[in-house]
User: What shape does this take?
Amino acid sequence: MGYPTHGYHIPARPQVSQQSQPPRFSPPEHEEILQRLDRVERDFKVERKSHYGFLKGLANLLKGKKKRDH
Assistant: This one.
């Protein structure tokens, strides 16, 4: 059966205006931002890979494994 629907008000969806906004950044600024983002992503991947290897070695050390046991 469920709950009665009378008295429950369903809110209307807000109207989204379709006005075109001017670009926030000029094309050179936009390109620079994309290049910086790409560099940060690459640095993050390298750092994550380095940390993963360190943590894996630490886990193996705690388990009593040596490098030649792999």
In short: The chain has a mean pLDDT of 83. Residues 19 and 26 are 19 Å apart (CA to CA). The chain has one helix and no strands. The two ends are 62 Å apart (CA to CA).
